[in-house]
């Protein structure tokens, strides 16, 4: 890798002023250091998850393990983000809800070098161990020590106290430069219009066209539809999917349920059992509820279109960062069902800091059942205060890309230019 970078620099002529590195590939920083190129750490997630992981590590796993039914304040963070016994109840890392076990963790360091390789020694063969357990040191903290600055895919309007915490913790500039969403998304927020995903996102395999989704939503009363999606990387277990299907059927509420490919062994996305690797299929659900009440999408779904449509009332989500920001930017409250990693902290951000959602259960170490889901659906669809809070947060983003993030990007640029000219 170092040799490749050196060759690239030789072709370029001028040395880059800096290099922005994904924090999941932090080993590149040591290579850049050898080449005398300032490295900038970039987090694609929000600031809350990093701040919570760091603060819980400082609190200590031994102390956190003794919380029980009490709570533990985290110095530097808001009181409502105190750690509770429920926060520590998580399913083991490795669960993905897929037919096969989760793939092996990807290496943080480069592939094992050949004998003549000159790759830096400290990170050779190092592999991720997954998200830290509550109270353990975040794996990214020490590895990112060599970065000059840190960029986060968030904004002060959403996460001010967590950005401030990280500034203190890192002792280096932490700049909120997001949320990094398509420009047309920000234009739609300014105009208050429904967003068309097909204009900015690559078309993926699906059983429903975007026009069909619009037509279906247009026929529903304002604020009546529950949108359900767990993203493309993780999801519930097969048993939990079955419980979810039963809860949606019993709710008597209109819903859109997006089921990603590979979400289970029972059938394919095209109403067929010919390819059981394609994903979970809720046999008979569509027929029982009818297409007027339930729209089941197998594969890709136009999520921003659904979230920005006035008929959508709430979002049952795993709380991945992008999904969380997209929902809150549209003023949609979230029924939080985190599966792993930063999703637990994102869920707490939604429920406790923004007060714009509810947890589907208070014990995520156990399987989520039909009663949990049914209760959660009624809570999220009926709580006007939560809906009001979600709308209030979206107002902060209705004028387009946040001014604070533009200022942060300008400050980042200026700092790099100053360093280059010093």
UniProtKB/TrEMBL annotation:
Residue ranges of the region described as Disordered: 75-140
CDD domains listed in its UniProt record: GT1_Gtf-like
Bias-annotated ranges (Pro residues): 102-115
Top-rank lineage group of the source organism: Eukaryota
Catalytic function, reaction form: an anthocyanidin + UDP-alpha-D-glucose + H(+) = an anthocyanidin 3-O-beta-D-glucoside + UDP
Biochemical pathway: Pigment biosynthesis; anthocyanin biosynthesis
Keywords from the UniProt entry: Glycosyltransferase, Transferase
Matches recorded under InterPro entries: UDP_glucos_trans (IPR002213), UDP_glycos_trans_CS (IPR035595)
Cross-referenced PROSITE patterns: UDPGT
Keyword Transferase: yes
Residues spanning the membrane: none
Molecular function GO labels: anthocyanidin 3-O-glucosyltransferase activity
Amino acid composition bias (Basic residues), ranges on this chain: 91-101
Family classification: Belongs to the UDP-glycosyltransferase family.
Protein's name in the database: Glycosyltransferase
């Amino acid at each position: 890798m170092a040799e490749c970078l050196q060759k690239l620099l030789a072709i370029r002529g001028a040395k880059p002023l800096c290099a922005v590195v994904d924090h999941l590939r932090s080993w590149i920083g040591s290579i850049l250091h050898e080449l005398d190129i300032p490295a900038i750490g970039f987090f694609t997630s929000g600031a809350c998850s990093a701040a919570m992981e760091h603060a819980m590590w400082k609190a200590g796993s031994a102390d956190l393990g003794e919380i029980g039914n009490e709570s533990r304040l985290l110095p530097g963070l808001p009181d409502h983000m105190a750690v509770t016994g429920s926060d520590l109840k998580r399913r083991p890392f490795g669960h993905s809800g897929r037919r096969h076990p989760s793939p092996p963790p990807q290496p943080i360091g480069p592939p094992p070098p050949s004998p003549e390789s000159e790759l830096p020694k400290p990170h050779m063969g190092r592999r991720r161990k997954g998200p830290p357990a509550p109270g353990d040191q975040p794996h990214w903290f020490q590895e990112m020590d060599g970065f000059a600055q840190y960029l986060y895919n968030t904004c002060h309007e959403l996460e001010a106290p967590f950005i401030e915490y990280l500034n203190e913790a890192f002792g280096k500039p932490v700049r909120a430069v997001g949320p990094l969403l398509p420009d047309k998304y920000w234009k739609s927020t300014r105009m208050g219009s429904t967003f068309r995903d097909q204009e900015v996102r690559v078309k993926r395999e699906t059983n429903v066209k975007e026009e069909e989704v619009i037509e279906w939503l247009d026929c529903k009363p304002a604020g009546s539809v529950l949108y359900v999606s767990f993203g493309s990387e993780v999801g519930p277990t097969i048993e939990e999917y079955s419980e979810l299907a039963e809860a949606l059927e019993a709710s008597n509420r209109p819903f859109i349920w997006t089921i990603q490919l590979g979400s289970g062994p029972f059938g394919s996305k095209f109403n067929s059992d010919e390819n059981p690797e394609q994903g979970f299929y809720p046999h008979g659900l569509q027929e029982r509820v009818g297409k007027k009440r339930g729209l089941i999408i197998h594969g890709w779904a136009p999520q921003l279109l659904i979230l920005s449509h006035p008929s959508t009332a709430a979002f049952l989500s795993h709380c991945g960062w992008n999904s969380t920001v997209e929902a809150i930017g549209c003023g949609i409250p979230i029924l939080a069902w985190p599966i792993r990693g930063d999703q637990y902290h994102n869920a707490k951000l939604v429920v406790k800091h923004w007060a714009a959602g509810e947890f589907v259960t208070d014990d995520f170490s156990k399987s989520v059942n039909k009663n949990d889901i049914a209760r959660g659906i009624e809570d999220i669809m009926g709580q006007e205060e939560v809906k009001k809070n979600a709308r209030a947060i979206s107002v902060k983003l209705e004028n387009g890309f946040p001014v604070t993030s533009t200022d942060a990007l300008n400050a980042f640029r200026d700092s790099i230019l100053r360093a280059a000219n010093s």
